[in-house]
Amino acid sequence: MRRFNITGICYPDEHYMVDISDRLSKIESLVEIGQYITINRGRQYGKTTTLYHLANRLSDKYVVFSISFESISKNYYETTEKLSYAFLRELKSAIEYEDLKNISDEVKVAICSIVEQNTENETIKLAELSDIIINICKKSAVPVVLFIDEFDNASNYDSFIEFLRLLRNKYLNRRKIPTFQSVILAGVYDVKNLKLKVRPESEHQYNSPWNIAVPFKNDMSFSVEEISQMLSDYETDHKTGMNISEIASLIHDYTSGYPLLTSKICLLIDDENLGWNLEGVLKAVKIILIEKNTFFDDLNKKLDDFPQLEAMLKGILYYGKSCPFNLDDKVIEIAQMFNYIANNNGYVKISNRIIETRLYNKFMTADLRGQMYGAGDTEKSQFIENGELKMDKILERFAVHFNDIYGSQDVTFREEEGRRFFMLYIRPIINGTGNYYIEAETRDRSRTDMIIDYLGKQYIIEMKIWRGDSYNERGENQLKEYLDYYRINKGYLLSFCFNKNKMSGTKIIKLGEKEILEVVV
Q1: For the chain, which has fewer Cβ within 10 Å, the N-terminal or C-terminal residue?
Q2: Model-level pTM?
Q3: Cα separation, 14 vs 370, whole angstroms
Q4: What topology does CATH give the domain 21-215?
């Protein structure tokens, strides 16, 4: 019986997985023309699975050495001689354990004997490695391809860069001497940013010895159609009666197709019997948002390593700052490399709702002892009735607390902090049961739409700065469009107003069949 997989390689006879044949075909076409390639994506983005199935696909036409630097200990990066030995030892392991096709006995014996001859001192000179590569490629009856997964595990920049220079020189002289048909490097960091991993606090140098390679730019995230295909395979086996297209779209709404998060939601629904419906997906998302795992540990580490990255993300999330998507900006380049952000019509947006909500929760941690969080925590019992949120009362009580606690602050403070304080107020009320997220398309300094999921029911709250009646009417109509999209009849408008002529309070607005409760703070 197949299952969903979030660790290691995905095998179609063991796991439910998307069809990656189109992705493999595109990489294969680059290999055929002798292109050197880099595949850089965030953690658990399907790189290793892609290389595994690509190696199988190419094995009839090439000798494919598919190795990983993850298994090479740090001490082997101390010198080029040690790294050269470790590299050849990985080739020897591939020969012994991977049943390589098309490789001649002469090449097998040559590699194995060289490694064995140098076992005692575990060193091979870089010039000797150069000659060995020439002989491997010269004696092979078919072209030789090299894959290196987790190449960014190279813990000493200089030795690895010298190794890359060797491969680069061979590529440039491929008309004169035998060399690899293609080399593919896969990892999170691209080569020019490898030094960021080693010494993030230092001045970063960007001159790369790997400018001969092309980055694989095709999207490796899962589309709604690909998720539907994976769910269709599952439905064929399990007959759950799920609405495949609806569930696939909902999962994609939360993950934007990030492979790990997509498969994690499916795995949780299957393993925990959460149900293949809206409520089941929301329960799975809630579990992901509160659990501790290596993916979010890595995210936290990156924020610690790059304070400017954290500052940029906070500005976007809390204050609606517009940040042009410019890869010449080091911070934006780093965030995009980790797949934390994406390009949204020329501006930076957080790559998916799950990462965004996890960031909100992290950034709010420092505020959890504040007065607004405490007020929500104290009153939360009166806001839930028969499993539903009494949103009218929540907004009314928030307005009272906000005016009491922060009414004397200057206008700039209240404009910038108002929405953040509402999120602090609502968090203890829904904590452990519901989720919230911000609709990225509406996040700016004047307007933010929050969607709260609570026990399968959704509540839409537009938070905005009041700029006059005509602007307010546009906001009401925009909120109505969201209510239509989510098939909800009632929405909420939280207006932060700093015009002395505008009275605070609540009112009901009727827009056709839709009803909007406006609360003016």
Answers
A1: N
A2: 0.86
A3: 49
A4: Rossmann fold (3.40.50)
